[in-house]
Amino acid sequence: MAELQAVGSVKKLNNQNYNTWSSCMESYLQGQDLWEIVAGSETTPPDNDQALRKWKVKAGKAMFAIKTSIEEEMLEHIRRADTPKAAWDTFATLFSKKNNVRLQLLENELMSIAQQNMTIT
Q1: What is the per-residue pLDDT across 28-83, written as a single tens digit (0 to 9) for each?
Q2: What residue segments make up the domains of the chain, in order of their start?
Q3: Using an 8 Å Cβ cutoff, are 38 and 29 in contact?
Q4: b or e along 17-42 (b: 16 or more beta carbons within 10 Å of the residue's beta carbon)?
Q5: What are phi and psi of 108, to 5 degrees?
Q6: Of 69, 75, 76, 60, which is closest to residue 17 (Cα–Cα)?
Q7: What's the CA gap between 107 and 52, in Å, rounded?
Q8: Residue 46, CB half-sphere, CA atoms under 13 Å: how many?
Q9: Are 46 and 53 within 8 A, CB to CB?
Q10: How high is the pLDDT of residue 100?
């Protein structure tokens, strides 16, 4: 496997750029042959020592890539994640909830603006 390339060209994840970050990181992880570990399609192998060691190395590289591509305040969300998939899924869940809340706020704001332009007769 080739050496892990720096994730420097991917803007670090913050509270406002999850969609861009996840898309760029997925491409990066695919290019490093680590995406299957993060997506969960390459799971921990059974008791085969050599396969398990290879999996652990890839999982470590994937987790390192994720942790070094996020802002420091985001690290707390995945501090207890024991696999790269768990870390990735944590962010997906965190930001999908936030997006639903944001959507509701925007809908309420739109209704408020629309009602201001209405007259009572």
Answers
A1: 999 999 999 999 999 887 778 888 999 999 999 999 999 999 999 999 999 999 99
A2: 18-116
A3: yes
A4: ebeebeebbeebbeebebbebbbeeb
A5: -65, -40
A6: 69
A7: 49
A8: 0
A9: no
A10: 72
The highest-confidence range among 7-16, 19-28, 103-112, by mean pLDDT, is 19-28
- Distance in angstroms (rounded) separating the CA atoms of residues 66 and 80: 14
Buried/exposed code over 95-109 (b: 16+ C-beta within 10 A; e: otherwise):
beeeeeeeeeeeeee
**φ, ψ (nearest 5 deg) of residue 17:** -130, 30
12 pLDDT band (50/70/90 cuts)?
very high
Residues, the chain: 121
Instruction: Report CA 28 to chain centroid distance, whole Å.
Output: 12
